[in-house]
Amino acid sequence: MEILVDFSPVPFTSNAKGNKMATQILLKHPDTGIVKKGLYGFSWTTLFFGGFPALFRGDIFIGLALVAICILTCGIAGIIWAFVYNKKYTLGLIEKGYVLAGSDAENALAKQKLGIV
Questions:
Q1: Which of 22, 50, 96, 109 could pair with 41 as two cysteines, CB 3.0-4.6 Å apart?
Q2: Any idea where the domains of the chain sit in the sequence?
Q3: Backbone phi, then psi, for 30, in 5-degree steps?
Q4: Would you put residue 102 in left (φ > 0), alpha (ψ -120 to 50) or beta?
């Protein structure tokens, strides 16, 4: 039995070439069978909403810290964090035991973009 967990309202917008700004990759935990969406690329939701996307994804510490830092820096931290958060979140899932569950081509591209050997 597989369970798909999706807590984040992530927009998948395309640029002029048709490439997605944030690319989705499915991750599955081999022991529990839980499937989650991992992302890599620019995080538009973090840009616009600061730490709230992290809170919705269950990344409580990062979310609360980012909300506080965004308040202190008048949102500048959110701009910087938008470039790294999706990768950080996905690598965090992999550290928790999740494995890439997309097609071979999707997994190869995700490994390249995430810096996984």
A1: 22
A2: 3-8+18-114
A3: -65, -30
A4: beta
Neighbours of 74 (CB within 10 A): 8
Strand 22-28 with 34-41, pairing: antiparallel
Single-letter residue type at 6: D
Residue with tokens 């998948």: 12
Mind listing the pLDDT tens digit of every residue in the chain (117 residues)? 556 555 544 444 444 445 557 899 999 999 999 999 999 999 999 999 999 999 999 999 999 999 999 999 998 999 999 999 999 999 999 999 999 999 999 999 999 999 998
The amino acid that residue 71 corresponds to is I
